[in-house]
Amino acid sequence: MASALTAIPPVVVVLAAALAAGLAGSRRRLGHLVGGGVTALVTVWIWVVPEGTHLAGQLFGFDAVFFAVDPFSRVVGLVFAFIATVAVAYSWATGAESKQTAYALTYVGSSLGAVFAGDWLTMVVWWELMAVTSTILVWDYGGKAVRAGFRYAILHGIGGSLVLAAIAWHYVEVGSFLFTASAGMVGTIPQLLAAIGIGVNVGFIGLHAWLPDTYPRPHIAASVFLCVYTTKTGVYAMYRAFPEGHLWIAYMGGAMAVFGAAAALLQNDMRRLLSYHIQSQVGYMVAGVGIGSALAQAGAFGHVFNHILYKSLLFMTAGAVIYQTGEENLKYLGGLARKMPVTCAAFTVAALSIAGFPGFNGFVSKGIVISASHYTFVKGPLVVGDFYTLELLLLIGGVGTFLSFIKFGYYAFLHGPYEGDAVTTAPRPQQAAMLLVAALCVFYGVFDGALFGLLPFDVTDEAVVAHVYHTYTVPHVIEGVALAVIGLAGFAALKKPLSKVGRVPDVDAAYNPLAFYGTRALVHGVTETYAAVDRVAVAAADAAAHVRSDPEMLSRYRANIGGSIFILMVVLGGVLALLGIV
């Protein structure tokens, strides 16, 4: 049985399903049935496959491992495959074509290929394919998605090149691409290149603008896929590069949590708001990786698992609203709780989960990371009472999250009557997909032991972690409720000024024009240089032809060339003699 489970990596099966879905053409039901059925089977497969190195071989002449399973890859691969099943069902329910779902499945497959790779070389191949397939998924929708996808492709191409350079330099230092050959990236330069390159994928501040630029553009079902794989594969790669953590990565994670939540609060486009919150929530994961303790790493990967559940649910609820109303802007919505009660309920569960309210899954995993920031990390330069620097950043990010989703829920579902065309409840297949994921958000929030069983380290065992974690302690519950109260009070105070905020520019407002005009100048410079060289070459060829046709001119040029060579030899001899004297 074990040999059958390890004969091929899951990516092969998922890519085969993508091909089958694409060949289904206009038979949407068949294409989506194949895609959903295969990803469901892959979910079970990843759950039961034994740990270990299963497929070792050669890639481009180097030792490679194509299928390796450990607790880190299993928890990520498990939720990747499961949410793919739900997203395929949601795609069918929203009228997505089989072709789009086929593209999405190639994206899923390449992500699984990266996660289950046992070496850097195999990982970077799938990493680059993940960038290509996600770009195609964005482009498929056409319109504004094409230009956004182009910008996305350029930035991820740069990030991938940095990761590739880091891996090549790492190989020079270590002599192997295998993960088992060293504890993460070796050498200062490889670590710096890897941090920046992977930082593109996880949304480091300054490298993050592709998230809100790209994810609101494509089909609503495509956004459900996109919100899952690129950033979380980045978190996994960050762990592989820095398995013992890094101080500045931890602080970058804390800064991401605050920045993403603050930027989200200023948005009115639903999917743009959700995209900024990907950066914010990934900040908790990056902080956990950066802290580097067993407790923090368990929290980081627990948050990967939980985040994928509630974030995909949030994109599904936003998609359901867009599907029914055709409207993306919160300013033009309102009162949909009465029209779309199931969607409203699913949104409420997802919002409480991402905000970390007691009883929901985000409360569990976010609490682990925050606990690790207090008990297993440095205090940092800012200490307020019993709260340390990184801990404060993560808590402030939590307040911002409550504020953002109170705003989202108020304007979409509660504020006034909806004044658009008649709206009906979401189709039942959409409701089923949303309710399934909502149920899991509650399940893992109430039965935290079920989540603990999936984590790389047992957070309840004092022999494994430096500080044992308990979810439902009185201080932790009070903290979760207090953040909610502060969020409610903050929204009441900020509601009026927030309602006047228009579109707020991000860093891409500077670097997109810079890149455009810089690229145009580069192309112009290269073209003009080529034209100048071409003119010189043509003139030289013309002169040579003219000289050859005139014997007297040819003999004169030969004499001049001979004299020039003689003079050059005399000068060169003098220089050599001078150097010899010196």
From TrEMBL:
Cellular compartment(s): Cell membrane
Matching Pfam families: Proton_antipo_M
Entry's Gene Ontology cellular component terms: plasma membrane
Membrane topology: Multi-pass membrane protein
Transmembrane segment boundaries: 30-50, 71-93, 120-141, 153-172, 192-211, 220-239, 245-266, 278-298, 304-323, 344-372, 392-413, 434-457, 477-494, 561-581
Domain NADH:quinone oxidoreductase/Mrp antiporter transmembrane residue range list: 117-373
UniProt keyword list: Cell membrane, Membrane, Oxidoreductase, Transmembrane, Transmembrane helix
Entry keyword annotation includes Cytoplasm: no
A Gene Ontology molecular function term of the record: transmembrane transporter activity
PANTHER family reported for this sequence: HYDROGENASE-4 COMPONENT F, NADH-UBIQUINONE_PLASTOQUINONE
NCBIfam families according to UniProt: PRK12668.1
Protein name: Na(+)/H(+) antiporter subunit D
The species this protein was found in: Haloplanus rubicundus
